[in-house]
Amino acid sequence: MYSQRVLESHPAGYAVGELHNNPIGNERMGRMQMELHTGIDLAVALIRQDTLPDLLKTATRQLANAFGLAHCWALELDLSGRTLHCAELDQDGEFDCADFSHPFAHVLQTGQPRELSRAASYRLDHSGFQALLDASDRPRSFWLEPIKGDDGRTLGILVLCHDEPEWDSITAMPLYRGLKQLLTHQWVSQLQSRDQVWQRRLLKRSLDHLHDAETVRQRCEQLAGSLVGNSADMTHLRAQIIRAAGSQLSVLVQGETGCGKDLVAKGIHDFSDRANGPFVVVNCAAIPDTLLESELFGHTKGAFSGADKAKEGLLAQADGGTLFLDEIGDMPLALQSKLLRVLESRQFRPLGAQQEQHSDFRLVAATHQPLQQGIEDGRFRRDLFYRLSQFPLRVTPLRERPQDLEALCRHFIAHYQAREGAGPMGISSHALHALGRYSFPGNVRELRNIVEFACLQTPVGDDIQPEVLRLDDLLAEPAPMVYAEEDAAGVPGVPAAADIRDLKAASQAFEAAVIRERLRQYDGNRAQAAESLGLPKRTLAHKCLKYQVAE
């Protein structure tokens, strides 16, 4: 064993084997054998230690007992070589190696042992060193010895505390040298083991990172089947969706009308651990204010006039899944405060109920409105905005990523072919070039309508050509306004009375034309448009959906 090789020496300098060939007394032989067995026991105790702190603690205790020391300390040098650490001192156990106000820095610099008297130690103005002396009961003398490995690497410093200043009688003993050599060997072994553990952890972390990156890449490829586009913005958005899906944070999706915010919400749900749960969609703009609270929270029988039976709310239906609040910017202020409480506690009370219910849902909200402006105008709660936007996502409008046009067109053509059973082969480069000149105020939804109409106009097996895209009408200057003969307000889009063949259709066209023109006048601000028309904002939102009026 290594311990036997190190300790196989006689205190006077004779090898154990030589004792049998020299005329020495039985008493001395017995003492030497006892010391040898003691050394072996100490060595075995050192070898059995599994961690470096346990090794150093055991070694210092053994040295103190074997040589009658007042105390013994082991200071470990960190990997940077800048700090000595004494694990047994809870406070003031760190020593900066560049700070020469304590003697350890001198020992490390010279690499040689050093004796320090109690009188000299009193003059050292270093709180950490003084704390170590106090813990040692301030003996008369100290022996500071650097410990180095076989490769010359400094491991740390041994501090021996004794009332007898004759250190040669201890440090020259073979037992001391053997224990120090064994301590050094075990110290290096523990550091190597620690390095191997650290390297294994680093390798595992790297492999986990690569695995996570590959998982994200694969899921992004799957998500590309619904969120189509090769632009940098879309690639980043898909990666963010996958990351959002891996958390339980509330997500706020912002983007213009028609850019696919609903697909983003569905992607977050489908790639989350709630994918097997319900995906509940609430369009806050399409439900009247008086019904929205009942739809969300549910109600008991008789809770209000017309409530002839109990109804489970959408919050309860979303338990275990995802609740998607579309057009959250249209939610009334009174309901916003109730929603905030639900998000904080996941507790809610149906209308007319006495007991609260719990729902474990994940919230995704979306809006085309600038909520910051709504906060400034007093139409949206600031605290709710911060609660919703724990993980904010922005969908870039189509006009800012024209490189996605081709992929989107081919996706819509394939979808049309699958639905209709036939369709065009693809789209020509001339048609793509023509589409690139259009700004698409309706975003991807408008592009889909254009492409599907072009599919209908294109012979089966041919490519879509520019002339079937109807882009001339979209790119042309607005046509002169056509007014009704008796229309004093000058509302555009109203046919002459003699041309009306369907009064209901004409009245709907009139409403749509008025709403469209008013929204254009107020840059798509529904609140101002509704106020100018004397309508509740929710009624206007309902009509926009009904007549397919885009801002």
**Shape category:** elongated
CATH architecture descriptor of the domain at 232-396: 3-Layer(aba) Sandwich
Give the termini separation.
Answer: 86 Å
Write down how many β-strands occur, each being a DSSP E stretch of 2 or more residues: 17
Structural class of the helix and strand makeup? Answer: alpha/beta
Which runs of at least 5 residues are low in confidence (pLDDT < 50)?
A: 1-20, 27-32, 477-491
Could you name the CATH homologous superfamily of the domain at 232-396? P-loop containing nucleotide triphosphate hydrolases
How is the largest sheet built, in terms of strand order? 3-2-1-6-5-4
Determine the CATH topology of the domain at 232-396: Rossmann fold
Mean pLDDT: 82
Output the radius of gyration.
41 Å
Work out the helix count.
23
Largest sheet properties: 6 strands, antiparallel
Q: Beta-strand level of the residues, as a percent range?
A: 5-15%
The CATH top-level class label of the domain at 232-396: Alpha Beta
What is the share of helical residues?
Answer: 40-55%
